[in-house]
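Subject: design request, 235 residues
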């Protein structure tokens, strides 16, 4: 904001702000459940086990199931998509049977891995057998398939207009989609609550910025607040 804009706003001093924050009572049990939710959803099994013992907070799920989910996710991230499909079918075959989009994206990732390995003939046969039928039934799948097959048209796919498909982020995207589906099948939340609350905090601050000068949260990791009496904060 400009220096002049800040002078026109009501100012809330640090002492008043901290007093208001201290008046907000949050139960320790709620904080513990929030932490456990993050550990379980993100797959930190050992940390969840330790936290369960120390806080007596129940994870709400068999922690062994988290290990299975993380192994499946790791397989996709490593490019071992076939292994991931086998593992998820062992875990719960209905996950892929009922989610056609996820099933397509996993097969699409298998195709990308074949192209990455330079197995052109195998890639063409695989696309014809496993992906073309999906494209015939769904126009969106057909567009994705055509875009993936375009990788074969370039000698160096990594410098092509569709190079993003060869990036590690594409594996991460597929792995995250599969991870969310597994969580949903286990009646777990697809995303941890903590990042959502942090996004809500940032949104609330953006709403206050136009109305007040106040101690803003400027460091989420350290929990550090700005001082509204510091003229540099008004720039």
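Subject: RE: design request

Done. Sequence follows.
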């Amino acid at each position: 904001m400009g220096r002049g804009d800040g002078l026109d706003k009501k100012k809330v001093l640090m002492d008043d702000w901290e007093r208001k924050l201290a008046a907000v009572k949050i139960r320790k049990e709620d904080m513990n459940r929030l932490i456990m939710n993050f550990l379980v959803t993100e797959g930190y099994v050992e940390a969840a086990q330790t936290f369960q013992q120390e806080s007596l907070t129940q994870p709400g799920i068999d922690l062994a199931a988290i290990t299975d989910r993380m192994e499946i996710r790791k397989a996709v991230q490593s490019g071992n998509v076939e292994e991931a499909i086998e593992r998820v079918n062992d875990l719960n075959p209905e996950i892929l049977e009922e989610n056609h989009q996820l099933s397509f994206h996993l097969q699409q990732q298998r195709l990308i891995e074949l192209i990455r390995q330079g197995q052109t003939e195998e890639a063409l046969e695989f696309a014809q057998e496993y992906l073309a039928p999906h494209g015939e039934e769904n126009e969106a799948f057909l567009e994705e398939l055509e875009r993936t097959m375009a990788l074969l048209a370039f000698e160096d796919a990594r410098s092509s207009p569709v190079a993003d498909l060869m990036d590690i982020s594409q594996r991460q995207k597929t792995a995250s989609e599969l991870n969310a589906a597994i969580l949903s099948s286990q009646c777990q939340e697809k995303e941890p609550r903590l990042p959502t609350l942090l996004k809500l905090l940032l949104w609330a601050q953006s709403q206050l910025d136009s109305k007040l000068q106040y101690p803003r949260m400027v460091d989420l990791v350290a929990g550090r607040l700005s001082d509204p009496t510091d003229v540099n904060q008004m720039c």
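The chain has a mean pLDDT of 88.
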